[in-house]
Amino acid sequence: MSSWRDHIPQAARDYLEGRRLDEVECIIADMAGVARGKAMPAFKFDDSTKYYLPTSIFLQTITGGWADFRDGADLEPDMIMRPDFTTATAAPWTADWTLQIIHDAEDADGAPIPTAPRNVLKRVLDLYRAKGWQPVVAPEMEFFFVARNLDPNMPIIPPMGRTGRRAAARQAYSMSAVDEYGKVIDDIYDFAEAMGLEIDGILQEGGAGQVEINLAHGDPLVLADQVFYFKRMIREAALRHDMFATFMAKPIEGEPGSAMHIHHSVLDVASGANLFSTPSGESTDAFLHFIGGLQRHLPRAVALIAPYVNSYRRYVPDFSAPINLEWGHDNRTTGLRVPISTPAARRVENRLAGMDCNPYLGIAASLACGYLGLIEQTGPREECRTNAYMDEDELPRTLGDAVTLFEEATALHDILGAEFCKTYAAVKRDEYIEFLQVISPWEREHLLLNV
Fold first, then answer.
1. Can you give the residue ranges of the GS catalytic domain (predicted)?
2. Which of 78, 257, 320, 328 has the most C-beta neighbours closer than 10 Å?
């Protein structure tokens, strides 16, 4: 008789070979990309057919509050957690033999819960498939290793390296800088191997203790699952070495921020050809339409790719962060960069997304804007061939402004789902209002005795 264990990836089978599975973690990403769910003994998972969680987890804010905008008659029904066994992977940092499995959220009739971020991405991918298209993405993950920060009132500082010194800034691509925290990098590699996750490369970024991990290109849902897993795993690896890993967009004052650059291309399903290149290797109208869609619609999607008040501290000039929606070939000052590549690998890099975004929603938002461009068939502005940091642009500068633009984005609502968009905006609005109630050290220092 077939078992669910016959349907899990080979890496998960290899991890369990000769061992007894102790526990299964049934997890799902909430609006923030935090893993929610339940853990159960393996024998309980074997005997169960359905798992339940309240749909209200998608109303939870990053501070643990609940956005309340729905009708008072809403009874907060449970959703059915449906395991996607292709996502089964080891949790190699645990003390026992544990698998984690990402679940999809369905209602009692088997319909997708529209507010579940993974379902939002699936909805966007279904629109591409209906056109005979297959999007391909490759995320780049930037993050910081930092010293343990036990008091939120204290600034975040870099971790201590193996030399006994704090990690140094402005050491981009330095191998010796990466070696300063080589042991935690070793654990990340080991964990990734046990989990069946492929790392395309690891490098030192420009910030003190800042690292970038590149992932191989592939199916957007698979890559979003991987980023979701990586963020959890990297935190666990750092904790083993008495440090934190943070995916905040701007954790340290005066240092660069952390992005999740997203590379996009779109294939024709029937032929396998890249829609962005002609058979002779020239760029296509579809390539320009995709960029045009990003330029027109990304301002209204910024709330999804820059989801917190801290996200907007990253959008400053001369810190390798975009402050514009210009596009250009091999131009890192533009928000939309076309990397050097062969014609078959022609792609567009969205440099606006922060590493603090939910990977499902960040990828969904970027693909939704590109999809609208393909449908509308309107090209972009002229290519930027100069330093784009000199240009003003239409990006919102605060979370409040971004949420307002998102609430008005009816074209995006049609792509992402109206119920999701209404829920997401309510969560972000509550978070922003709560932030505005906090008095910062800057205000106390400069206003207390001077105004």
1. 117-451
2. 257
